[in-house]
Structures are given as structure tokens and as C-alpha cells.
Amino acid sequence: MPSSIRHYIQYCPAYANERWQMRTRLGPRSEKLSTVLYTDRGLSELARYNARTGRFRNPNSASR
After folding, report:
1. pTM of the full predicted structure?
2. 62 within some domain
């Protein structure tokens, strides 16, 4: 079953640790999806979250 953006960012239990790190850096504002998606700081933290989860890593690209 495909997951929604909201599920991936805010609720997915598989990424609880990564989400905690993002929320710690953003503070209470991170509870609002609009903060994560529509602010410079939120987008920066979302990029870090994506990197930590590896969810969108290309399996065909070279490892760094």
C-alpha cells in the first residue's frame, strides 16, 4: 500500500528515530506539516530527514 506524504513525514513508525531528530531540530512547529513543507528551515530539515531515512535513495547510483 502506498503511503502518503503526511504518513511518511509525521507518522511512519519505521522512521520514528529520524523523525524525532527532525522534530528536535525544528521544535514544536514541526507538528504542522505546513511548517515542514513551506518554510526554509522546514525544507532543510526535511532534506536531512530524507537523507537519514534513505527512503528515496537510488539503488543504481554509486555509494558515497
Report:
1. 0.80
2. no
CA–CA gap between residue 6 and residue 52 (Å, rounded):
17
For residue 43, being part of any structural domain is answered with yes
Contact 49, 8 (CB under 8 A): no
SS3 per residue for 6-61: HHHHHHCHHHHHHHHHHHHHHHHHHHCHHHHHHCHHHHHHHHHHHHHHCCCCCCCC
Residues 9-52: pLDDT tens digits?
Answer: 999 999 999 999 999 999 988 889 999 999 999 999 999 999 99
Residue span of the structural domain in which 46 resides: 5-53
What is the number of domains present in the chain?
Answer: 1
